[in-house]
């Protein structure tokens, strides 16, 4: 018997669950190896904020790495030299960030000398204890201020009346957050589920076997996709929390099945959104694979790492197409919708600065950057012309205004995000087995 195993077509994608799971079986091990290479494990971040008191758990802290451990080609000194001749990007007023027209998110400035290096392998995404009003406030802002919410929050006590048009400017949001933002949930927007007993949970989990419910058909594809990607990211983060969970009574780290059931198993739509997000990333990989490998060449990626990425791309290309990007932004309002989509996604990336736990913020920002990179590859890029690296002299000489620039940090974020989602799908499989064992023990 299969527990929590959805079947059939994934809504808004062009593939089914079974296909995605079998693709993931091929990709997960390769991705796992790839993210352990120096190119992908060292990530540059803006300096971490002062502790804001919202997460007192040591697990929230991030260990930074001395720049001496970073291969010379990626150090800010070397990268900074390249920057002297690169004019395409402009720094935003915020300082440690930058943006160009094709970007779907605000990027950390790789060249900023204030930045710190983080070894991602030393700082795994897992349970940190970050919860309560601070984390709820950030999720609430992401969904309610910046999303084209296609469906009311079925599991929250308050639903959104906004059909997706009135978005508060992120500046208003940021000042609200840094000022404490009043009473946070403003009347219990995230009340969570009033949980029944364990028997009830079981029934609901079994209910999810029926597969996802129909999304609201009145909402256009672009807005649904925006929501699905955010919800899918949220679900993936939740899966990692439950998969690497600290039992505070024993001090042991282990998968927590109840955590998974409450956060994901009881919500088939979250599971579907997670699969959808993975599908979108996979499509970006197969569509732009050779150009991604080229970016590794341009940014001093080692030969062995390039070969590993090329193999990954080959596997992705051997699979049926997972998502049809041409179905998006194709109507009469296409450009308007695309600009709006881009603006709101950029806002989400800004909101990530407000996450009050270093490790959560590290992975939150990384994954939003990875998703933003996928969106850029799918919707700002034709999939064929060369991608410019920030130091690409040939393209700069031609001064092609349409050239899409892809930096090392975007490729690092993209591949790590693909790995996060891939690991989440693998973890779901693990939880199914745990659930089956629990059933047998009863
Ligand atoms: P939350 O996960 O906070 O969710 C709030 C509400 O959102 C729910 O009540 C529900 O109504 C709705 N919701 C939940 N999931 C979905 C979904 N997939 N789709 C749509 N709606 C949904 N904690 C860690 O321990 N480790 C981390 O690495 C970590 N990273 C984080 C990164 C970010 C960017 C943020 C904002 C928070 C992070 N957290 C992390 C905190 C974590 O996500 C939860 O907020 C926290 O564990 C409290 O969980 P909760 O069960 O109260 O609901």
TrEMBL record:
Q: Where in the cell is it found?
A: Endoplasmic reticulum membrane
A GO molecular function annotation here is: FAD binding
Which Gene Ontology cellular component annotation is one that this UniProt entry carries?
endoplasmic reticulum membrane
Q: Which GO terms describe its biological process?
A: protein folding in endoplasmic reticulum
- What keyword terms does UniProt attach to this protein? Disulfide bond, Electron transport, Endoplasmic reticulum, FAD, Flavoprotein, Glycoprotein, Membrane, Oxidoreductase, Redox-active center, Signal, Transport
**Keyword Disulfide bond assigned:** yes
Task: Report which superkingdom the organism of origin falls in.
Answer: Eukaryota
Give the transmembrane region(s). Answer: none
Task: Specify the protein's topology with respect to the membrane.
Answer: Peripheral membrane protein
Q: What is its main location?
A: endoplasmic reticulum
Q: Has the keyword Transcription regulation been applied to this entry?
A: no
Named cofactor requirement(s): FAD
Question: Which family does the record assign?
Answer: Belongs to the EROs family.
Quaternary context:
May function both as a monomer and a homodimer.
The protein's name is Endoplasmic oxidoreductin 1
